[in-house]
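Feature request, filed as a ticket because there's no other form

It would be nice if the structure record came with a short human-readable summary line next to the tokens. Right now we just get the raw output. Example of a typical job, pasted below so the devs can see what we mean:
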Amino acid sequence: MPETVFSKILRGEIPCHKVYEDELVFAFLDIGPLSRGHLLVIPKEPAVTLDTLSDESSAAIGRILPRLCRAVKKVTGCDQYNVLQNNGALAHQAVFHVHFHIIPKPNSDEGLGVEWPSGKLDHASAPTLAAEIAAALHL
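Raw output as currently delivered:
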């Protein structure tokens, strides 16, 4: 795994504003926030993309994400927020260590802005695609 700013934060070489830590997960304020309360949640396990993360670390993140979201909502007063996770450069991943953003959305000008260029599902090929993905779960 490449050396990242998150690796250095986990080793204490770069300071951060820690919000949460346990044996598998670390959460801290983003230094380039899109809105007040923007958090980063990272596994301590070195993994570049979510599909390479262990089940144990994935479960640990899954357990703490809702609690962190509730805390951000309470402190910021924002009832709406985004949880964002990118995998790979084409998918806009900038730091190559798995991380989740919790981004409060207080109004239309702050927080995450998203364009969603929706396509249409091909219902003729959809059953085959769904079956192929379901079969791949057993690998």
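Something like this underneath would help us a lot:
The chain has one domain: 5-113.
The CA atoms of residues 24 and 45 lie 7 Å apart.
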